[in-house]
Protein 1
Amino acid sequence: MNIVIGGFSHETNTFNPRRTTLERIMRDGVYLHGDEVVKYFSKTRTAMGGIIAGGRELGLRVTPTFFAYHGPSTGLIDREVVEHCTQELVNGVRLAQPDGVLLHLHGAAAADGISDPEAFILAAVRNVVGVKVPLIVVYDMHANIGPSWAMMADAIIGFKTAPHTDMFECGFAGVALMKRTLANEVKPLVRLSKPPILIKSGLMSMTDAPLALIKPPMFWLVSRAREFMKLPNVLDVSVAAGFGDADVPEAGMTILATTNGDAVLAERIVSELSALAISLRRGFETDLVLTPVELAVSRAIDAPHWPVILADQGNNTAGGSPGDGTAILVALKNAGWPDAALFICDADAAKEACIGGVGSQFFGSIGAKLDTSSGKAVHIDGIVRLLFDGKMRDDHFDIPLQLGATAVVRCGQTDIILTERPCTTQIHPNVFRQVGIEPTQRRILVLQSAHLFRDEFDVKHHIPRMIIDVDSPGVTNPNARRFAYQFVKRPIFPLDEI
Ligand SMILES: [Zn+2]
């Protein structure tokens, strides 16, 4: 039995003005053909890593075709990118003549003129393989899933954790289901429902972390989904939180149930979970959980125990921010540069600091060039402490990172890590260690992350003594009411009463 694997992954924040081009994907992202896919993802804890490992362990012949990925720090995708990547996948599928197709599609892509690129890909692949070849999709929990997915795919399996810790397991589950399907043990069928709820990045957490005071609505939704998964004939139940940072008609939550040929059961599950989501919707309100910037910084400075993590909600580089917001930087400067460490993406400043060299004085304005809604450029005057080529490892996903020219500039007791490209995964404490900063020894750690950091920093490594979700401006601020949506299907909570 021959299974074709491949995928396409971009989480598109349409409020980010920087386009996602093919050139950017090839330069800064991941662009792989054939065996390169296996080489890159083998032994990683990603969905593709799970798919590859699953194929090996379950004895299925896996034919890798094509995989393209770009970090979520860029906005709307050029239409030609989607057309090109679809063609690459379709070519691979056609050549392999597979018994089954297993794709990892993130699910939150948005392109110029193609609001649901994954649906575009699925339709093209289905068109090539016909109706009899099983097509299974593994997607990210932050997906905006269009209704047509369920018509194209036989099974749709999503991550069940945020921060994501089960990507590998979901990839593996996709292969296991494919094996059972090809052996005629099961005949999967998927149904979906879209409760009218739009959530932005910081509110999608479902973690039951030590420092979480209350369990978020996603926790209860996923818990109920897990109960449904124990029923006979249920193959998978997933809750896609959605990605409210993309202004597309498909934006919003999706409930999916894959059963063994039982449409009635699948419909019942998705309608019950949709009703539960609607009843829990007020739990996604932002006002209670966000702290204004100045107050957050002063609380962090006065905190009796540290480190304190300031989660920079408006500049979440894993949710579409280019990572150059300055609101917290300004507050640190106003506070006299306390003991703190933070990343700021500024290509010009990073290169200039690199030219100056270690020990030189850096003098200039930094930040707020890419996302102009996230603050104003800030003048700093500091000393270059460290230079770095930006070749890092993300120890959570176990993949390489390329930040380009990187310089650590110290102002007072604040270390500013200037990078040429956005650091999209500030979710593992080693991200600081790789630039010579020991996170356990700092008073304030500013993370351009909404919640993905909680797994490594909090649950696994117990680093923060306090976490403050900061109401910073920028394209990833979680309050959807502050954004001018044009294309989102209305009415939808919290933009409208439902
Ligand atoms: Zn995600």
Note: Residues 140-142, 164 surround zinc ion (CB under 6 Å).
Protein 2
Amino acid sequence: MSIAENSRAVARAFAGLGLVFAMALAPVAVSAQPAPAAAAASEAPSYSASAPAADASAAPAPVASAAAPVAMTAASGVTYVPARPVAGKGQPIAGAYGFQDQYSPIGQEALRMHDALLMPVITAVMLLVLVLLLVVMARFNRRANPVPSRTSHNTMIEVIWTLLPVLILVVIAVPSIRLLAHQYKAPPKGALTVKVTGYQWYWGYGYPDNGGFEVISNILPDDEAIKRGEQPQLGADKRMVVPAGEDIRIQTTGSDVIHSFSVPSLWFKLDAVPGRINERVLHINEPGVYYGQCSELCGVRHGYMPIVVEAVPRPVFEAWVKSQGGTVGAPAAKTADATPAAKPGA
Ligand SMILES: [Cu+2]
């Protein structure tokens, strides 16, 4: 009798929790979406009020004089001028939490999955467990329930607590595997190749399709970064310039130890391993400046090798390539610089 009573009580609690589960799921699913945007909006002004941005409003002209490589004019008349970063875009925001806004199709898909699926599921599971714990503490403590039940099985409950997690995992698995497959998509034929080499402790950006030149990118001193409107420790003297709106083949390798090429706002992270080439597609939706850092502990100056990716329209990119002594549209350039980087330790 007490067994039956007990199992009924637990079943009732479970049914009630199902309701809580459903209720928790609904509002979170709705509210999760606007949250990051709201956070970004509320954080943005506080950032723009800080020193670098105030400097930015003063005049864009000093940048040109501060930046070493100034306006670069190609024969076509299109020029490349290093763009000033926009507060809150492609870089961290002071005091913010959560993901940065995404500027690549993969990033947007992944962030959507996080906001609309993973967070609601995690929240609902957490609330369910919390409520179950509270029910157990209130109803089955020694005072409220002096004679404990000796129930050892309840088929219904066991079926539920087996099936429910399986269903949740299936629901998560479908978009998760789809996202994974999208991230492994091979670059299309003819995609621009940029070879990223991690060095102790700076980055090299090689353009094998454009004559094989390599741009060496070092961290800027804090005062210089601030002068250029960049955040301290995130600014670099040379940027990885790429065309916006097209698939780019990024290949990474390490010259000495393992580094990792990572740009959070592009949902891009790829290890740079000595003696190997890793490859992934990078697609940047719109022009802008996007910041990242080495994300594999690589030595004492690991924290001082920032990544600055600047996406520009195609004609501007070609102007920049020419200004670097590179070539545009000549596939013959492939021979120049296939894999010179790996210098395996003596
Ligand atoms: Cu590194």
Note: The pocket of copper (II) ion is lined by residues 198, 201, 259, 294, 296, 298, 302, 305 (CB under 6 Å).
